[in-house]
Every structure is written in C-alpha cells, then in structure tokens.
Amino acid sequence: MKIHEYQAKDLLRDAGVPVPRSQVAFTAEEARIEAQKLIEETGSEVVVVKSQIHAGGRGKGRFKEHPELGGVKVVKGAAAAKDAAEKMFGSTLVTIQTGPEGKVVKRLLIEQGMDIARELYLAATLDRDTGRITIMASTEGGMDIEEVAATSPEKIMRVQVDPAFGLQGYQARAIAYGLRLEGKTARKMAGFLDKLYKAYVKLDCSLLEINPLLITGGGDVIALDAKADFDDNALYRHKHIEALRDEDEEDPAELEAKSWDLSYVALDGTIGCMVNGAGLAMATMDIIKYFGSEPANFLDVGGGATEERVTAAFKIITKDPNLKGILVNIFGGIMKCDTIARGVIGAVKEVGLEVPLVVRLEGTNVELGKKLLDESGLKITSAGSLRDAAQKIVEMTK
C-alpha cells in the first residue's frame, strides 16, 4: 500500500522525525489560506506548492494542460500559491513514473520554503537476500536514485541492520560521516536515522524513502520529501494507516480483486492468467514468457476460492483492454477442479468470450472439471500439461 507525501510526513512527524511545516489543500482557496498561515508563522514569503500523486519525479514532471508548469512550484506570497493551485487542480501530471497517461492532481501540499545547503538521499527498505532492513544513503540526493545506482553505484552506501539489535550508534555515525557530515550536523543525522529506523519497524513499512534529505544552512537535518510504502499483510495492525488509502490512485481492477480477497497485480502483457497458488502463478507467467508472449496479470485465486470468487476473477481479467487470450492453470488440492470449471463456465456465459481461452486442470475432481468444460458448449481449449497450455495460448494469440 502506498500513501501520499503529506500523509508520510504526518507519520514521520509523529515519530519525531524533523519535517517542514506544511498542510494539505483540496481547493485553490485552501491553498491560499494555508500559504498565508505559513507566511505568518515563518516570516518568509516563500512557499512551495507540491502536487500529491502516487508517483515520483513530480518536480521534473509536466502538466498536459500547462506544459510550462512542473508538479512542484516555488512561489512568493499566498496569492501566487493560489494561482499555481488553480492550474494544478484537476490537471494531469505526467512524470517518469506515471507513464504518458499521467495522473490527475486532486490534492496539493502547501509547504514552507527551506534554506537548502545540501540535498542527500536516504531510505530504509527490506533486503530480501539477507532478510534484514537495509539503510541506503547517498550524497546524490534530489536525483533519480535509479540512475545513480546504474551509473555510479559506489556513491550509494548500504548498511545492514541486525533485527536482534536494531540500528546501532556506530552504524548511524558511519552513515553520517559517509555523507561528509561533521560536528553537530553529524550528530543530528545520527539521531534522525535512529528515529527513521524505529518508525520503519513500528509502522511495518516496506519502504521509507527521503529524497531529498535536506541539510539546511544552519546544519539541521530535515526530510524535505517522504515516500512510504507498507506491507499489506500487516495493515490489520495499523487501521489508522489503512484509512489513508487513496482509491483514486489505485488500479480499479486491483481494488475490485481486493474486495474478493484475490491476489491480483496488473501487468503490461496480453495473456491473462488465473492460477491457484503464488508459486504456480509465477511459474505460469514464466512459461508464457518462455514461449514468446507476456502475461497481462498475476492472479492467485487462492486454495479455498468459491465459485463466485472464480467468476469475479475471470471478470477482472477480461476487463483488460490489451487482453488477447486467457490461460487458466489450476492444480486442485484444497481447490477442487470442478469448482474452477463451474466458475469459468458461469463467467463466460455472463460476460462472453471474445479471446481464446485455454484451461489446464489437474488434481482433485479433475475428471469432473474437464467433463463440465467439455459439455459446456463453449469455445474452451483443454490442455494436458502446463507446457502444452502455454504453447497453445501463445500460438492462438499470435
């Protein structure tokens, strides 16, 4: 689960992590009011109007309706903040992460202007190779960290944190000195890291990224930006975080799948997949790629899916405009093959079938499942193995 920058900063603020003064706005007038409050509190006319979408690269992005305007605008005065907000609200921001379709801006963060001496990069994430939280830091803040990793990987420090002990003082100091910080700023950086790490663990984050991490002219360390992603499997422990979900920023198909307790991720390919079990789903996607096509989705209906859930899953798959074929691959253990067959037949009869459909069934009640499909009168192609199924659907879609 992802949240907006302003929400991430609220969580960091609650954890004691220094962040700029800011407030979210949902209308241009609210933007003016919040900008005026910041001007009175800080004594500075400089405020920043920041688009809030679930994508990075906002500063370098451009609005389709206003090509001269980026997703982050520094202005002087409350009136200028309102003018920028009027252009941003309802406009489509295109960044390197949104794709050419962009995203419509419906929220803005109004933030105080800061005295920027240096911009650094900092993130906490899970290294799945070691099973440990890793702190990454770089002097190349404010840039595309992916580009830095590709062209100058030596500029990114990585520190593994032992879960039994947490982030140690010597590790925090090593990061601070590696970022070429000294004196009180280095000490503040160590304190910043300690609070960031504790927030990451407490909130069950999968990523907590600060880019840029600001060093002010006075030597303070402040999170100028914040990106937070969370482990969906831990959200039951954090109802206040789950309440921050912005469904406008999420894929409608993935939202619908979540309501049916289905594991679904939309992809860029053309062959839809409906499988039970995450490992089998990954193998199915791999063999589709092996035979020269690309999967349109990851979809695990689970071991205990009902006929209704199978029908819902099939409907979700068929909504993909790029779909050219569907491969159903089921190994019946807890999940019975006849249940899958009935769900597929019901869905096809309800929504129609405009693309080739290949079904491979194996396991519990497999003969009954195949019999139901064969006698359905529908244009469904059976397959005897996963290899056979993948070859057939790839050939039929080409």
Structure description:
- The chain is built from 13 helices and 19 strands.
- With 398 residues, it is an alpha+beta fold.
- It has 3 domains: 21-112, ATP-grasp fold, A domain (Dna Ligase, domain 1, 2-Layer Sandwich); 116-242, D-amino Acid Aminotransferase, Chain A, domain 1 (2-Layer Sandwich); 251-397, Succinyl-CoA synthetase domains (Rossmann fold).
- Strands 8, 9, 10, 11, 12 and 13 form a 6-stranded antiparallel sheet that branches. Strands 1-7-2-4 form a 4-stranded antiparallel sheet, with helices on one face.
- β5 and β6 form a beta hairpin.
- The radius of gyration is 25 Å and the shape is elongated.
Short description:
The protein has 398 residues and is an alpha+beta fold. It has helices at 5-14, 28-42, 78-88, 145-151, 169-178, 183-202, 239-242, 252-259, 278-290, 307-318, 337-351, 366-374, 386-397, and strands spanning 22-25, 46-51, 62-63, 72-76, 92-94, 103-104, 108-112, 116-127, 132-138, 156-161, 205-216, 221-223, 227-230, 263-266, 271-275, 297-300, 325-332, 357-363, 381-383. Belongs to the succinate/malate CoA ligase beta subunit family.
Number of structurally distinct domains: 3
- Provide a count of the helices: 13
CATH class term of the largest domain = Alpha Beta
Tell me the Rg in angstroms.
25 Å
Termini separation (Å)? 36 Å
The CATH homologous superfamily of the largest domain corresponds to: Succinyl-CoA synthetase domains
